[in-house]
């Protein structure tokens, strides 16, 4: 897998500046998620605080160390924020949620846009190199290979590589950092509850690993069936006179239906493998209130 990612990276390297910038935006998106949680907690403390008892200075003292220094600097510049009845402090606290949401959405957009830009450019280069390579092969190769399969390999298989560049590379950076940042935040807020939740973590990972393996196998089969469909359609349309001359319409149609059936079967396997883990988790959530009532 690492060797495969290295080979893909050779096509991304010419556009690594935008790609790395997109990954950096993914890191900032992960940090913005933690900022949103802190903002929500701050506003909840404001809403449920007794009238006139809210103090921005007290909330600053309970904030994470990374945010505490700039917040204390802001309070020192504006001393009126220390007053429990300060409307400015209340307005600043309430504005943290839309501000955190703005940066979260902005960094997510830049992450998706920049990474996909680099992925699409890499795929354009890959297709050009693959097409040039096929053009220079011998006539004996083209006599053995089917035209529909070659077309499918250039058009369809490269889309899978684009998905790997746009999703896999970005997920390798953004998702682990999101988990680490949120885990650190929860550990600082509720250490005992966070550590208890780790006991359930392996049970959540196991279905993802098992069904992820099935998705990979089915995705490989889908690419094969897609190439078969493309090849069958190409032969049927380009050799239509031969098909009609030998009255093979029913045979070609039966082949097309069988290939489509296999394609449909593999696609539904992917859908089941992707949706079953989430469905099981939702089922467990629904069952929790009934257990409590007992």
Text of the CATH class of the largest domain: Mainly Alpha
The fourth-level CATH homologous superfamily of the largest domain is ABC transporter type 1, transmembrane domain
SSE arrangement, N to C: HHHHHHHHHHHH
- Rg from alpha-carbon coordinates: 28 Å
Largest sheet: none
Q: Which shape, going by the Cα principal axes?
A: elongated
CATH architecture designation of the largest domain: Up-down Bundle
Task: Tell me the CATH topology of the largest domain.
Answer: ABC transporter transmembrane region fold
Mean pLDDT: 78
Quick recap of the structure?
This protein has helices at residues 2-12, 16-47, 56-61, 65-77, 87-94, 96-135, 139-144, 147-189, 191-197, 201-238, 240-245, 249-293. It is mainly α.
